[in-house]
Structures are given as C-alpha cells and as structure tokens.
Amino acid sequence: MAKAQYAILRFSKYKGPEIGRIEAHDERTKEKYASNPDVDTSRSALNFHLIQPEHSYREEAERQIYNTIVAQQGLTKGEEYLGCRVRSDSVRLVEVLIAGTPSFFKDKTQEQIKEYFEHALEFLKQKQRAETFVSAVMHLDEKTPHMHVTFVPLTEDNRLSAKEIIGNKAKLSQWQSAYWEHMVSKYPDLERGESADKTDRKHIPPRVFKEMTHLAKQSRKIEAVMDDANVFNAKGKLQKVEALLERFIPSVEH
Q: Distance between CA 175 and CA 181 in Å, rounded?
C-alpha cells in the first residue's frame, strides 16, 4: 500500500533580530550551516526564487510598514514614524513553509517540482496582498524540496496584524483546508492531515526540531564522558567536555 502524500503548509512569525537569521537560512548567505546538516551547499546553486527579494528582509519589512503608516496618517517622509502604531514586539515578518511528503517528489523533474511550488504560491497570493511579499525561494539542496515564502503581515486596511491574518487555531485549520483544496485541484493524490485543533499537536519549526535533536545528541555525549569521571581523570574529562561544547556552540547560529 502506497504511503499517503500530504500537502504541507506551516507558518512562523518573527519580530526583530531573528529576521536576519531567517534570511541567512532562506537566502543561503552563509558558507556553512552547522545547525542544519541536511543542507548540501554543493547543490545550493539549484535553489531559485519565484519572488526575488529587492532588499534585506528586515529592511523590506520596515520599508513597507513605514510607507503604510505614512499613507494611512498623511505624514510626510521627514515626520516621526518610529513607535507610531507599531509596537516593538509586533510581528514584522511571517514565513510560510511549503512542502510535501518526500515520496511525492520522488522521480519528479526540477520543472515539475517548480510547477508544484508555483501552484502553492498562487494560493498564498489569493490570500495575501501581492505587494507585501518579500521572498519566495525554493530549496533543492536539502533532502526534501520545499519553499520558504516571507511576507509582511499588513492587512487590507493597512494595519500590521499577523494575528488577524493567520488567526487562531480554528482559522489555521481553515487555512489548511483551503490550501489542500487548492493543491488537490491539480494534484488529486494529495491528502489533508488532521488539523491541529483536532489533534491538539503543537508544530515545531524544522530548524528548532533539528536543533533540539542535535542538542540531545550532544547532551548524551557529555553524559557518557562524565559517567566515569573521578579525581584522577577529571582534567582530561573536562577537556573532552570543553571540546564537545566548542563543537556545539557554533551550531546555535543560523
């Protein structure tokens, strides 16, 4: 019996400094990705954009927010903007992960994979103002093809509100149903998984899950080193633990 193939749609929200780390991952601006061993940088040239960013993610988010407030309040460019209807803890960027079950992409050509993500992007453009999108980049340098789409959560009436756009658990379920209906119109074999409001499962972003797994492995290695530590070998054991920590610390950066 063939495994079920699912259309995957996941949201993440970002407020400030972390936006730069998300951009570094999505746009592949680093030489190494210690926190994500699935990235094969020798294949990164295969990645490509469906929406090419014109500025850095943070710069583009601030530009859109600024222009929106200027238009809404009738301010001139030189007038004060910071702090004006935009809280410091406001979500400035939403990232959407578009993916599928690995078996779905098996034996598909690059063009067929591109068509899948183009169809998915059409759905998002039906739901969110086109001018708010920052980037849409396909990653073909990891085990399973996927796409990261980022947009500034500006509403139709020019308010910054990720909460209103993405919604609560019930609205997220509506997002998932609408997305599946859109995708299955072209790919009838795709299935829709149980919604989070029924399973009560919490989604863990892929980068966080991989980091948690890596941390658990490091913890087990350190425990193994310390298990037989005593007064006679303490110095050598400490050096081994320090070496393990030095290997782990770089991986917390994206």
A: 10
